[in-house]
């Protein structure tokens, strides 16, 4: 098949996004369909798998219409997907349940019921802390509550697996999505017998595990027509959104750390082989048979800033709101914020954790609170990064993407707290570009994952202020001392 374009399909928790790229990473067009999230009970968070599949097709069609290119000009599709979703599926690929997404907390009680030894033993094999986000604990909840779709299910799948099963009739899952389940041993690249036994499912109810360069052929013609593409277009399974965000921003070599801060946040780094943090502060997910990714996700990124803005009934734009923090020096004059307002994953893995302000004084004003919240978010990310350092050494470069990366004030704060130069990619489609690049590697259009660095435009680095960095080291020590966790 001839063609000059590739598509990155990014299935996130908020939207299905399709981006058409030239092979050098330049965006030809993009389209996005927002996914509906349902909250049927307190702590339950679900999405409709059929809606997500439909929106994936429509997003690609919208992008094709905007690009105004011919069907045969698109050579390949690569897929990125958010981790930790779980769907009960019947023999024919019909969903018996909604997709329980990462933020679904219904299995909190089950996650807390494991002994310390069980937690450590499972973590050392799977690289995933026991937490309500994982399909492992969701399956335990289904078993213990006799969840009807669980009892009737023939298969258990993530959103990506479900869609590929519908489109191709194949049950396959890539290494990283399998790793994120808590049911997989990344060092062996196989399903974990102990975890599966605890959930009382059978291994054949899970998909075949394949590398991120696995190619699917024979796209359902009706689906292809709905996308505006040829049915013989190869589709590459890709990986999880976190791994592909690192790839798409260029943070792929030793010492290169990627930080993403949108509503939530994450710190990630590629590593040769599988490295397990025995303190259970971080995860370790396989990417290829040679490389894994280590890191930690935070529940509390921009959502903490949004909460404060609403609490203060502030009517400014977000950029104006953030800029108010510039009126205050580092440390917000003694006001410290621990950002666990939405529970927390890394590095404390405590869904019942609560946030707090400490050091409050009558002299503190709105701008002090804004700065304290920004610093609290960033200190939490720094704490995750310190855990990664114990596994992989000091970082040489920090790459940043996500909503907060549009704030120069926050980027400087990040550089000052971490004490490293910070690089921001000009594209905000890192996961989609990572997926598209993986697809190009898979079909032999490019030679390696590393070559993506030649196709990413980075701005000038944000350089840390050494004096401010030294001040922040002392403030961080105080932040850790005041932590109640």
From TrEMBL:
GO terms for molecular function: gluconokinase activity. Its EC number is 2.7.1.12. It comes from the Bacteria. Residues 258-442 form the Carbohydrate kinase FGGY C-terminal domain. Gene3D superfamilies: 3.30.420.40. It is an enzyme of class 2 (transferase). Keywords: Kinase, Transferase. CDD domains: ASKHA_NBD_FGGY_GntK. Residues 5-248 form the Carbohydrate kinase FGGY N-terminal domain. InterPro entries: ATPase_NBD (IPR043129), Carb_kinase_FGGY (IPR000577), Carb_kinase_FGGY_CS (IPR018483), FGGY_C (IPR018485), FGGY_Carb_Kinase (IPR050406), FGGY_N (IPR018484). Belongs to the FGGY kinase family. This is Gluconokinase.
């Amino acid at each position: 098949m001839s063609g000059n374009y590739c598509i990155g399909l990014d299935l996130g928790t908020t939207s299905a996004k399709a981006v058409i790229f030239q092979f050098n990473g330049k965006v030809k067009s993009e389209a996005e369909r927002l996914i509906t999230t349902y909250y049927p009970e307190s702590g339950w968070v679900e999405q409709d798998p059929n809606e997500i599949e439909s929106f994936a097709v429509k997003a690609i069609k919208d992008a094709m219409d905007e690009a105004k290119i011919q069907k045969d000009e698109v050579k390949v599709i690569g897929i990125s997907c958010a981790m930790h979703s779980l769907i009960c599926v019947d023999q024919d690929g019909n969903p018996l349940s909604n997709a329980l997404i990462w933020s679904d907390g219904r299995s909190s009680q089950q996650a807390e019921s494991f002994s310390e030894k069980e937690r450590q033993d499972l973590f050392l094999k799977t690289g995933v802390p026991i937490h309500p986000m994982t399909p492992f604990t969701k399956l335990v909840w289904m078993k213990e509550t006799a969840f009807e779709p669980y009892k009737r299910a023939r298969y258990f799948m993530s959103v990506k697996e479900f869609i590929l099963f519908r489109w191709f009739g194949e049950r396959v899952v890539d290494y990283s999505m399998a790793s994120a389940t808590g049911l997989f041993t990344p060092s062996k690249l196989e399903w974990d017998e102990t975890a599966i036994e605890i959930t009382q499912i059978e291994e054949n109810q899970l998909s075949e595990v394949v590398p991120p360069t696995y190619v699917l052929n024979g796209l359902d013609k009706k689906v292809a027509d709905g996308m505006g593409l040829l049915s013989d277009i190869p589709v590459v399974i890709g990986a999880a959104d976190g791994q592909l965000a690192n790839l798409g921003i260029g943070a792929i070599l030793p010492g290169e750390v990627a930080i993403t801060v949108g509503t939530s946040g994450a710190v990630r780094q590629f590593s040769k082989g599988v490295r397990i943090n025995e303190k259970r502060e971080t995860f370790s997910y396989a990417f290829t048979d040679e490389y894994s990714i280590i890191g930690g996700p935070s529940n509390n990124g921009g959502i903490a800033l949004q909460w404060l803005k609403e609490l203060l009934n502030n009517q400014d734009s977000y950029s104006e709101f953030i800029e108010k923090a510039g009126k205050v020096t580092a440390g917000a004059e003694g006001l410290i914020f621990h950002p666990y307002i939405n529970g927390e994953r890394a590095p404390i893995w405590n869904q019942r954790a609560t946030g707090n302000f400490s050091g409050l004084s009558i002299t503190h004003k709105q701008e002090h609170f804004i700065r304290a919240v920004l610093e609290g978010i960033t200190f939490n990310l720094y704490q995750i990064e310190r855990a990664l350092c114990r596994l992989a050494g000091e970082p040489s470069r920090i790459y940043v993407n996500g909503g907060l990366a549009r704030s120069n004030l926050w980027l400087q704060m990040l550089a000052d707290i971490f004490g490293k130069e910070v690089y921001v990619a000009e594209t905000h489609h890192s996961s989609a570009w990572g997926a598209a690049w993986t697809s190009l590697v898979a079909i032999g259009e490019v030679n390696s994952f590393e070559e993506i660095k030649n196709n990413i435009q980075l701005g000038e680095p944000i350089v840390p202020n050494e004096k401010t960095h030294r001040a922040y080291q002392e403030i961080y020590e105080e932040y850790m001392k005041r932590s109640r966790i």
